[in-house]
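Sample intake sheet
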Amino acid sequence: MAIRSAVPPAPILAVAVPFRERLLQLVLYITVLASSLAFIEPSPHDYLMGVLALACIAAGVRLERRIALLLLLLLAWNLGGIIALLNVPTDERSVQYVATSVYLALAAIIFAGVFAQNSMARLDKMRSAYTLTAILTTLLGFAVYVHLLPDRHEFLLFGRIKSTFKDPNVFGPFLILPAMLLIEDMVTRGVRFGKLVTTLILLTGIFFSYSRGAWINFALSTAVLLTFIFLTAPTPRARMRPILLTIASAVGLALALAALLSIQSVRDMLLDRAHLTNYYDVGEGGRFDLQEIAVGLLFDKPFGLGPFEFSRLYGTQQHNVYLQGFMVYGWLGGISYITLILTTLYVGLRNALVRSPWQPYAIAAFATFVGIVAESFVIDSDHWRHFFLLLGLIWGLAAANAKLRRNGSHSNGALRLLAEIS
């Protein structure tokens, strides 16, 4: 098992960055910054992905061989969706749904190509933009929640923060990747006031989304993150840091929760969200009842139902992305999607254990992906833009790791970069 390097820091020589690379990084920054504007379709992020694709061509971004399997699985998934579309050929919404799936698959491929080369500089741009947009989105939603912006109810849904998203259940999970990156940084490099405040802002957004899925997602992602920080720590002393900070954080979160429970409105919402409800979760027409119906339809509809057909027949979606894969994309799409998830978990696990300059990003991405995979048993995540960013991130870093091995992991440049993050 690979561990983090304990090599002492070495000076990094300044290298002139070509204009086309600076342009690519700028477009990447703006594209990720716009990823939180998800309340309109198509969103600004969607148009910017086209600009990012052009910037990739100008910068000479290549698709590495390691990304080929990702491309094939996404192609098969979308082919299943196109075949299933024959069930509803004249439905404009369904055509748009399948087109969105195709676009998001292309977005994952673009991100994979971007992060496979010049990885550290591009990862830093992505991290900076993602963290900033997550902070701004959270502050906006919280300002409405506490009535600092009392007339902007469109940023709330039934008393839950959704901010610039259509649903609190998407807003909450969107904040988890930057939270994982910040937590990883504080655990391995020390707590700084600015990073602590930023993390608390993101945790506030996750909490006040009142999304049970986001809470579970965050808890599982954090557990995976801390486990891998422990496993890859270079010294016994470094292994103690995640343990001690976990204990301190658990105490702090318990005290914060106790304080929040003293607020009547918060306590009422938490009690409502903490138990299963007949109208949404259990009972006839509930989430789990519909999932049973979806399982029963699997063998009757090998070519799927097509987009929105399940909700048209049964009143709402089954809220399970793996069943969604079969209901909307047929057997071909469903099997391809599950294969995509399993292979990405494997690739992400390997990335997290490989000693590389971008190992902290690999650990945070894998931890976040595990959380989404678990949450997706109770939610449809197949059109989450940040999910496809994660796909591209994980597969792109796998390609970068392969190139690092081919070029020799003990080259001076690699060691200097590794020392910078150690």
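Comment: Residues 5-14, 409-422 have pLDDT under 50 and may be disordered. Strands lie at 156-157, 160-161.
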